Amino acid sequence: MISPPFPDLPAGFRFGAATAAYQIEGAHDEGGRGPSIWDTFSHTPGRTLGGATGDTACDHYHRYREDVALLRELGVDSYRFSISWSRLLPQGTGPVNPEGLAFYDRLVDELLAAGISPAVTLYHWDLPQTLEDGGGWRVRSTAEAFAEYAALAAERYGDRVERWITLNEPYCSAFVGHAEGRHAPGTREGRGALAAAHHLLVAHGLAVRELRAAGAREIGITLNLDQLDAASRLPEDLAALRRAEVLHNEIWTEPLFAGRYPALERETWSGQADGPWRLPGDLQLIGAPLDFLGVNFYRPITIAAAPHREPDPELRTAVDIGVAELDPYGSRHTTMGWPVVPAAFSQLLRGLDFRYPNLPPIWITENGTAEPDVLTPDGAVHDADRIDYLADHLAAVAVAVAAGVDVRGYYVWSLLDNFEWARGYEQRFGLVHVDYDTLTRTPKDSYRWYRGLITAHHARTEEPAR
Ligand code: GBH
Fold first, then answer.
1. Strand, coil or helix: what is 35?
2. Which of 45, 132, 369, 398 lies 20 to 30 Å from 282, alpha-carbon distance?
3. What is the pLDDT of residue 8?
4. What is the ipTM of this complex?
5. How confident is the model at residue 1 (pLDDT cuts 50, 70, 90)?
C-alpha cells in the first residue's frame, strides 16, 4: 500500500499518534471526575456545533484496552495522550481522586505491555471548573494549582512516562478561549486574555520545576506556531504581519527561548500585555531549559492589514490587532476549510531553527487532516486524501531535517475520530473511523498506510538484530 519514495528520515526517528482526554474519554461524570470548563462550555446552548458534548465522546475511558490494541497493531513507537486534570483533582487542587489516578495507571501499563512509550500532555484545555470559578487562567493561583497537579502526576507516573508536555497550544487556551470566545471559557476579553497567556507560561515554568524535582525524563511544551506570510510587500501589510507574529508566536517563543517579552507588544496591544500580573523573576521561571519543543502544524495563514473592529484600544479583545487572515494558496482544502500547503511546514521548522539557534530538539506533536471519510457498506474508509496529506507533510519534515533542523519524531493527529471542540463530531481526523452510534472502531486506509510506513522506516534504518 505504501509507495516509495519513503520520507528520508534518519535512524532513530520515532513515529506516534496523539489524542486528548476531553476529545476521546467520555465518562464525564464517572469515576469521581470533577467538571471542567469544556463540560460547562459544551453544555451551554449554542457553543458547539449541534450541541455536541464530550459526555461520551469515543468512550475511551471504558474502551482504552481496545484502543491500545489498535496502537499496537499500528506499530507506533509512542502514544501521546492527555490527562484530565479534574479526574486526578476533581476541584483542581486539594483532594485527590484515587479512581482517576488508577485509570491512567491502567492505561500507562497497558501501553508499556504493548511496547509503546507513553507521552503525557498535562493540559489539553480542560481546566477544572472550580478553578475557573476562582478566576481561571486570569489569576496566578491557577498556575500554582497546576504545579500541584504536575507534581502529583510526575510522582505517580514518572517512572513509566518517557515524555512530558506541560501545555498543549497555550495560544488556544488564552486567545481562542478568552478573546475569540470560540473555546471554553468562551469570553471576549482584552486584558484577561493577556493575563491568561502570562499565567499559562508561569504554570508551565512552575510545572517544569516540579517535573524536574520528581526526576521526569523528557520535559517540553507544545505550541501551535503559525507559518505566517504577508499578503504583499506594502508597509501596512508587513506591519500587520509583525503584529500577528507577536500574537501567534512570539508571545510564547520569546519568553521560552530568548528570555524576554516580545519587542513589539506595544504596537500589538497598546501596552496591555505588560500588566500587573508580571512579577520579577517570571522570565527566569518561564525560560528554564527544556528537553524538547513540541510543534503542532496544520496549515499556513496569510496576513493583511485591516481596520480594527473596535476602534477604542481599551475595549478591543486581545485578537483584534488590525489584521485580516487570507487564504491565497489556491490549494485543496480539508473539511476544516484549511489549505493544504506542505511546503509551509518545512518553512516553519527552518524559520524556527534560524531564529532560535539554542532551540531544544523538536517533536512534531500533532499533524493531520480532517476529511469526509465515508464508511463503505463493506466496512472500509478509502481516505486517499489523508494519505497524501500525511505523506507530503512527512516529506516536508524530511526537508527540514535535511537542512539541519533537529526533529526527533512525529505524532499523527489523531488515532481516532473524536470530539473536535466547537466543531463537534463532524470533523474526522482519525486514522481509525469511529461510529458514534455504536462506538465501533474501523481502521481507515491511512491506518494501514501509516503502519507500512513505520515498518519500512524501521526496516530501512535499523541494524538487523545480531
Ligand atoms: C489542535 O488545534 C488541537 O491541539 C487538537 O485538540 C485539535 O483536535 C486539532 O488541532 C485539530 O483542530 O472550532 O471553528 O472555532 C489546532 C488549532 C485552533 C484549530 C482553534 C481549530 C478553532 C476553530 N485549532 N480552532 S472553531
1. coil
2. 132
3. 84
4. 0.94
5. very low
Where are the alpha helices (H) located in 330-383, listed in sequence order? 343-355
Q: What is the CATH number of domain 14-460?
A: 3.20.20.80
Helix (H, G, I), strand (E, B) or coil at 162: coil
| Spatial CA neighbour of 153 closest among 143, 164, 142 | 164
Interatomic CA distance for residues 61 and 73, integer angstroms: 20
Task: Look at residues 443, 445, 449, 351 and name the one whose alpha carbon lies nearest to residue 405.
Answer: 351
Which residues line ligand 1 at a C-beta cut-off of 6 Å? 20, 23, 168-169, 172, 176, 182, 224, 296, 298, 366, 413, 420-423, 429
Predicted confidence at residue 465, as pLDDT, reads 56
Contact predicate 202/282, CB 8 Å: yes
Minimal-distance CA residue to ligand 1 atom 7: 420
pLDDT, tens only, 363-406: 999 999 999 999 999 999 999 999 999 999 999 999 999 999 99
Residue given cell 456545533 in the structure block: 49
Cα 422 to ligand 1 centroid, rounded to whole Å: 9
Half-sphere exposure of 55 (CA within 13 A, CB side): 6
Q: Is 332 helix (H, G, I), strand (E, B) or coil?
A: coil
Tens of pLDDT, residues 64-95: 999 999 999 999 999 999 999 999 999 999 99
> In this model, does residue 48 exceed pLDDT 80?
yes
Q: What are the CA-CA distances from residue 303 to residues 182, 210, 232, 295 (Å)? A: 20, 39, 9, 21
**Run of H or E residues at 205:** helix 191-213
Residue 168 annotated in ligand binding: yes
CA distance 23 to 46: 19
- What residue segments make up the domains of the chain, in order of their start? 14-460
Nearest by Cα to 330 from 315, 341, 319: 341
